[in-house]
Design brief:
By secondary structure, the chain is α/β, with parallel strands linked by helices. It folds into two domains: 44 residues; 206 residues, Uracil-DNA glycosylase-like domain (Uracil-DNA Glycosylase, subunit E, 3-Layer(aba) Sandwich). The chain contains 14 helices and five strands. A five-stranded mixed beta sheet has the order 2-1-3-5-4. Helix 3 crosses helix 9. The structure holds iron/sulfur cluster. The site of iron/sulfur cluster has 14 residues, from helix 7 and helix 10.
Length: 301
């Protein structure tokens, strides 16, 4: 067996271990495995070092209704196993792969912080966001900033585009119609909103809900990166093209990117459609459900 075959076999064994819930790989044969493979092994095992049990939400009926709503438009999705979905490539050619931004190979830029330290950091960061006036065409229009919401030790972060009118009014992310649909998706995943962190690529509502400009995404990115560095989620779900532009710095359409995992620092990234797109395109729900099932398989749900 040549060297690359050894690497592939090793990674496959690790993935099988992960599926079986085994979180440690033991000692690796020194000298036989290249350093880069050891790094990959370390990263794989780290992402499952502290698996949380599946949510024990009592509202089974609500969850089942949410699944039905998603699956009702997705007869074929129900037949697609999460394992099959994991291997989907959507016809991506090698030249279409995400541009290398160097972040995929980098670890989180902060050490692991205690919950108290995370809260302190978020208090500082949200204060900076409230005072930020970098986007001149936005600041005079916003009512307030929308920092994000959720626990400080989430396994999953959902990231959207920017606040809408309801979010601008309440200061909370995803509380309008699209937010209600996101809640259904999260419920169908056997999670609750209390278990995931929700944020946007932009912290302020653009005028007339227009699509954020690249310059505005660039302005706000350091806030997003600081939030993620503090939270260190295992998974980030990019909801729509703006989240993808912020995190993965890719302009490729969602249809070309979804169906596989990407890497952002210590987290694995899932790309799918924004809930507001689903409100206009019911048929896309089946794709979102496939993407969420792919994630659920990794979460052990
Ligand atoms: S969108 Fe972000 S960068 Fe722009 S003004 Fe608001 S907080 Fe600042």
């Amino acid at each position: 067996m040549d060297r690359s075959n050894v690497e592939n076999a090793l990674v496959q064994v690790l993935e099988n271990f992960q599926r079986c819930g085994i979180t440690r790989f033991g000692s690796l044969p020194a000298g036989e495995v290249p350093a880069e493979t050891l790094a990959a092994v370390s990263q794989l095992t780290t992402t499952t070092a502290n698996p949380k049990p599946a949510s024990a939400s009592p509202n089974v009926a609500r969850r089942s209704a949410a699944v039905s709503e998603l699956a009702a438009t997705t007869p074929e999705a129900a037949a697609v196993s999460a394992t099959q979905a994991t291997g989907a490539t959507n016809g991506l050619r090698a030249s279409d792969r995400l541009p290398s931004n160097g972040l995929g190979a980098e670890p989180w830029s902060l050490p692991v912080l205690s919950l108290e330290q995370r809260q302190t950091r978020f208090d500082e960061l949200s204060g900076q966001v409230r005072n930020c006036r970098l986007c001149s065409s936005i600041v005079s229009y916003r009512q307030q900033t929308v920092f994000g919401a959720g626990p400080l030790n989430p396994r999953v972060c959902f990231m959207g585009e920017a606040p809408g009118a309801d979010e601008d009014r309440t200061g909370l992310p995803f509380v309008g119609k699209a937010g209600q649909l996101l809640t259904k998706i999260i419920t169908a995943m056997q999670l609750s909103r209390d278990e995931v962190y929700i944020l946007n690529a932009l912290k302020c509502r653009p005028p007339q809900n227009r699509t954020p400009m690249n310059e505005e995404i660039d302005h706000c990115r350091h806030f997003v990166e600081s939030q993620l560095d503090t939270l260190r989620p295992e998974f980030i779900v990019c909801l729509g093209a703006v989240a993808v532009r912020c995190i993965l710095r890719s302009e490729l359409p969602i249809g070309r990117l979804r169906g596989q995992f990407y890497q952002y620092r210590g987290a694995r990234v899932v790309v799918t459609y924004h809930p507001s797109y689903l409100l206009r395109n019911e048929s896309a729900k089946k794709h979102v459900w496939e993407d969420m099932k792919m994630l659920m398989a990794e979460l052990g749900s």
